[in-house]
Please model this.
Amino acid sequence: MESQQSRVLVQLRDMILKGEFAPGERLAEIPVSERLQASRTPVRLALASLEHEGLIEQSPSGGYQMRRFTSQEVADAIRVRGLLEGFAARLLAENGAPRQLLRELHDVLEDGDKVVNKDNMDLDDYAAYVEMNDRFHQLIVDGCGNVMIKRVMDMLNGQPFAAASAMLPMQSSMEEGHQWMKQAHRTHHALLQAIERSQGSRAQALGEEHVEIARMNLDYALDKPELAAKIMPGIKLVADAVRSRS
Model:
């Protein structure tokens, strides 16, 4: 069930980020299940996850509806996430990460290596990368020992496009998206290396830099939305949402 839920979540998130649902449009469990040819349980769980991410909200008439938001909300949340994750990585580097945590981080990155180093990535590979990416970031936040960082990160994960995997590009035929994921994964390895070498300043800088790709993609989408949609389809909805409010 978990694997099926991951696939449905990836498909739904990608449809949302490509702008296939208009801001305010209703998303009901049965029509979505029929559209994806999936059972209702994984769809129900996926919709709940998307609500937590802030991409959709409960509809007064039942089910969910697309949420309206601004580019400034997205940019602010991304920047704050970078600061928090960078600080969490610094704490691990300076305080010393437990061996068990380091083993888990290495295992997670090896899982990521298996999918990003393929010549082409399919839907299952993409879902696996998303799970790996979420797990890597969560391990750092949970392992840093700072309860307030965890609390604020939980709040940020409920903001549109602020979660660690919310702006990952849909791979498939998009070579640029695949290369973006390779670059992001190289940063994962560099970040873990800085933690292991007790390089606090470097770990913090890498954590903050890691989210800059998402922020720059946001700026690019607002400046050239149609071209950006071809390179990183997932961010087209941000520009569409902003134009709908102007």
